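We both want to read discrete structure tokens more fluently, so let's practise on a single case. Once you have written the record down, we can walk along the chain together.
***
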Amino acid sequence: MDSPGPKGRGLSRPGRGLETSGWEQIPPLALGGCSPPPFAGLLCTQRSPRLWKYPLNVLLIIVDDLRPSLGCYGDQLIRSPNIDQLASHSLLFQNAFAQQAVCAPSRVSFLTGRRPDTTRLYDFNSYWRVHAGNFSTIPQYFKENGYVTMSVGKVFHPGISSNHSDDSPYSWSIPPYHPSSEKYENTKTCRGPDGELHANLLCPVDVADVPEGTLPDKQSTEEAIRLLEKMKTSTSPFFLAVGYHKPHIPFRYPKEFQKLYPLENITLAPDPQVPAGLPPVAYNPWMDIRQREDVQALNLSMPYGPIPVDFQRKIRQSYFASVSYLDTQVGRLLSALDDLQLANSTIIAFTSDHGWALGEHGEWAKYSNFDVTTRVPLMFYVPGRTAPFPDAGEKLFSYIDPFDPLSEVMEPGRQALDLVELLSLFPTLAGLAGLHVPPRCPSPSFHVELCREGQNLLKYFRFGKGTHDSEEDPYFHANPRELIAYSQYPRPADSPQWNSDKPSLKDIKVMGYSIRTIDYRYTVWVSFNPDEFLANFSDVHAGELYLVDSDPLQDHNMYNDTQGGDLPLSLMP
């Protein structure tokens, strides 16, 4: 694919009849206006007064398929001491949601600050600058403001959706780095009980025996540390994005991490059955794990399975082990940042592109609108703001061995309970770094290169100088009924089929638009025209309504119990 010209000149603009996104047809609308009085007197589109003598660096850590199964999010089984330590010095958002639970659409959405209906990427097969608009990205914005921007690992999804270049040269100052060993991820490198090599879902390995004697996330950590060492003496601030592969499938990780999770300690999902009231269009048949050799050997029925109970436990064991392996890589990276004396001058943001179902609702993947696939970890460390500056010689991020039985779970430093969206990453990082916060997008905004569709989260960082003052409430919240998180997911048909998980644009016939509030999750599945990118809300195929307080796992669909699917007034935010 040819790269677009400078600043989008010559790019085709969306045609007539494409101006209205699906969200504009779903009440309640909460997309307009400026953020409430924000951090340090910052106004929405004005430059923030600097709190630091020099510009702050940014380290953005993006994890693949990580749900909030972490100690700092209250999961008592998971060993994640290094991420928990980061959380103890950060502002942690308890209820952050992705806008589409699949890799490429989610990453393009939060890296541009636009919803999937604006980027027009619902699959993996188009580049937004060509097919939607020449939208700026987070790293591009920092690059244009004097930062050296660098990409390590999986930041953008590779391939067509980032122009086979990770959006270079727009977003990055130097060529993005991809670990050489990632080409083996889906090959026959998993030794099975028969002693032969297989392309399995469950793939604990002896690292010394795998090709190149290493794994992609280990290589990414090493490269990120090398770049930090190089930037230590630079006169320019840096923006370093590090994308980790695990716990994305296959679960290929050092086998010693299995020891942290004995199978006898692994429980099943609390709701492992397909809910009786679930519309078929809402279900995904998790085709990608069915293609793995060890899952194929189970001879599962299509589309609902189920997976045998003993294998369910093994999947959950390997997901948790992959999370602990990931944690060690994050720990080594943050320890190096500390050793290089960069922790005092670097904002750290940590998040995931979406969650992953581990048997909930009888599903084993992302590809849905449920909380378990759309809710993600999100935390920000801001030196001197979310934690005091360390004393000379003191380390904030000493490496913690997850195998150390004496290490204790650290509580998050501060927590925000409000519902927020990954779209907010762009304006929030800009504001924290003291850059102009991009203005709110008009509607339509296909012609606008720099604007944001997400809320600015800077108001949550407006606490007193004594960031650990016991008299201050560590939980922050606004009026909860003013807060909404939106997500969406496409389907090719009303019933599960082979391409229900990842339909190509041309095959999309139905779009599920979902609203998450403090009280409920409400989803309508409506007709969708992929040629005009238009949803028809007068043609509702199915609906879902889950009441969060009484049904936190979202197993009891109340949609048909309300008149025509209309929400009771008591549930309207």
